[in-house]
Amino acid sequence: MTSDKKPQKKSALYYYVLTILIIMLINTVIVPTFFSPKVQEISYGSFLQMVDEGKVSKVQITDRKIAATEKGASEKEFFVTGRVDDPKLVERLMESGVEFSQVIPKENTPLENFFFNWVAPIFIFFLLGQLFFRFIGPRMGLGGGNAMSFGKSNAKIYVEAQTGKSFADVAGQDEAKEALMEMVDFLHNPSKYKEIGANMPKGALLVGPPGTGKTLLARAVAGEAKVPFFSISGSEFIEMFVGMGAARVRDLFKQAEEKAPCIVFIDEIDAIGKKRDSGKFGGGNDEREQTLNQLLAEMDGFDGSQGVVILAATNRPETLDKALLRPGRFDRRVPVELPDLQGREAILRVHAKDVKISDNVDYKSLARATSGASGAELANIINEAALRAVKMQRTVVEQADLEESIEVVIAGYQRKGAVISPEEKKVIAYHEIGHALVAAMQKDSAPVHKITIIPRTNGALGYTMQINDNDTVLMKKEELFNKIVTVTGGRSAEELVFGSITSGAANDIEQATKIARSMVTRLGMTEEFDMMATEVINNVYLGGDASLQCSDATAAKIDAKVLAIIKEAHAKARTILSENRDKLDELASFLLEKETITGEQFMEILHRQQTTDAVAAEIAEAEVSEDKGAEA
Ligand code: ADP
Ligand code: MG
Ligand code: ZN
Predict the structure, then answer these.
(1) Whose CA is nearest to atom 11 of ligand 1?
(2) Which of 58, 112, 371, 528 could link 108 by a cystine bridge, Cβ 3.0 to 4.6 Å?
């Protein structure tokens, strides 16, 4: 489970052993040369010779050794030699006038020894250690800047004194920011709330699809409140050893209470917070349940007025245990949704500040072309554009870089080398124009930003960049139906023009079915089922797989109804296309030739045709039927 963890820091034991080794080294090598008397061993013969030649000023005799000081040398320099049973030595010394005595050469006192051997080295080590941890270690990435991990249970709790993020870094998400503003205020000034007797919610749950800035928001709250930020990811609680998760939770809260006011952030809380004993998997996961229980206990246990705010993030709120969500725990839910048009523009602008970007970039049109993209994807789009600018050997990012990078992020890189036969290319062009034309005839406005038929690495053969001018919240039944008509337009064009069908519509088929199904099972848009819900969505933010909740007989009826809707839509698409066959041909041949058609070009061609009168249209229709005959 933890196979890809960073290498653990070396244990304290490692450092103790290292320290002791180095102290021993200093004691045996360095200290003697600096602090001990300088001693040179000589033979008894040379000693006698020195005495005879009058070179010796002083001799000290011990039980086993004789130490001699040379004339003019310092008191701390000795020649030593072993003591030989020599009765004539005294005589010789007297003769050459050497001062001599039977004493031990002066040695360091025990106190001095203790100081030089132990106190000094340990002091030096302390200094070195400080130097290392303060200045060198962080630069090498040990202990990492102002974030460090600690905890008795090796918990990967990251505490940052200052996250350095503010609400200004989070674009859009105004509702979420507003909800969190109150928490910031509480952290600034807990007493204000205490006085009036108001209890700040202990925890808030940030809920939304991946990449919408939940983690970013939590860090911004800490940054705004200027309080420490403890963060841990739910998956890190659940590790190898049973009982560790609970210990971590305890640690986390203990540390947080010591540092209050502060923010505790549990990212991906669904990893621990899943409903207990869901039945499906029998006994369930003991370790996870223990961890969750500990979390619940800690949340109840601590005093909210101290100024500890718990934030958690998840993209699967429906899986969370109800106990987590009740008042006194994560009772506040902050939705962090995919950005709307304005939000996307704001996010693009925030991230554009990080790169050198041309002044005449049209953020609005970029925002329009990125409907459905998350904040993380938008940040990625800016970065990809910067990379492309470098590749093109430019120093600023241009609009073209951004447009290309949108396609890269959404549809993959261009497969320049891909070989597609002219016939296939023609099919693809008609297919894409089929979608666009059906959409345009239903809405009477530019349905697309751009269509290209340059193959992409993700396998898409053509690519249509949709326009979404206004992100609407409510969809009318007609709009949903028209969407299905548009989705079936690609296949309809193929049928109409080539009389055969290809595998290119797999994605469309899936999408059409999904829309039609939700109309029947969840949106109450059919007479037959009125307002009965026959399906529930399990996973709102992660694709939303639905599960049926009805009898088999009803399920069969649902299938029949879904098929009927799709068939009706398909027929409508075919009618639209055959009524506008001339436009279909003209647009498709333009796309085939240029490989790309923009929304404006598309509308221009469409308009050109509309200005012609009914007679011209009739002639065109006659041509169409001829074409058809020739091709068949
Ligand atoms: P989540 O936790 O919701 O999955 P993150 O907070 O990790 O998403 O967001 C990932 C990245 O996407 C952020 O670091 C940021 O660069 C970018 N991002 C997402 N939402 C926004 C936003 N609203 N404003 C600015 N940047 C955003
Ligand atoms: Mg996150
Ligand atoms: Zn299609």
Answers:
(1) 376
(2) 112
Sign of the alpha-carbon dihedral angle for 525, 528, 531, 537? negative
Q: How far is CA 535 from the centre of its chain?
A: 33
Residue 215 to residue 222: CA distance in whole angstroms? 11
**C-alpha separations of 590 from 112, 432, 463, 580, 604 in Å:** 97, 12, 15, 16, 12
Single-letter amino acid, residue 25 = L
What's the pLDDT at 628?
A: 42
Write down the pLDDT at residue 138: 47
Ligand 2 centre and the CA of 345: distance in Å? 21
Give every CB contact of residue 435 below 8 A, 6+ residues apart in sequence: 447, 464, 486, 487, 489, 490, 493, 508
Instruction: Give Cβ neighbours of residue 455 (< 8 Å, ≥ 6 apart).
Output: 414, 415, 418, 420, 461
C-alpha 169/C-alpha 354 separation (Å) is: 11
Best substitution site from 163, 165, 212 to test ligand 1's pocket, by max atoms within 8 Å of Cβ?
Answer: 212
614 pLDDT above the threshold of 80: no
Residue 37: pLDDT over 70: no
Rounded to the nearest whole angstrom, what is the distance from the C-alpha of residue 272 to the centroid of ligand 2? Answer: 15
Ligand nearest to the CA of 270: 2
* pLDDT for the residue 195: 86
Nearest ligand, measured from the Cα of 432: 3
Using CA atoms, how far apart are residues 557 and 536, in angstroms rounded to an integer?
17
Is it the case that residue 183 has pLDDT exceeding 60?
yes
pLDDT of 363 over the 80 cut: yes
**pLDDT of 506 strictly over 80:** yes
Q: What atom of ligand 1 comes closest to residue 313's alpha carbon?
A: 2
Where does ligand 1 bind, in terms of residues with CB under 6 Å? 170-173, 210-216, 313, 347, 350, 375-376, 379
* CA–CA separation, 195 and 198 (whole Å): 8
Ligand 3 is an ion; residues with CB less than 5 A from it: 490, 508
* Catalytic annotation, residues: 432
User: Tokens standing for 540?
Assistant: 């709102």
- What's the whole-number mean pLDDT along residues 105-121? 77
- pTM score, two decimals? 0.59
| Nearest alpha carbon, ligand 1 atom 14 | 216
- How sure is the predictor about 610, in pLDDT bands with cuts at 50, 70 and 90? low
Q: Which of 205, 207, 216 to mutate to test the pocket of ligand 1 (most atoms within 8 A of CB)?
A: 216
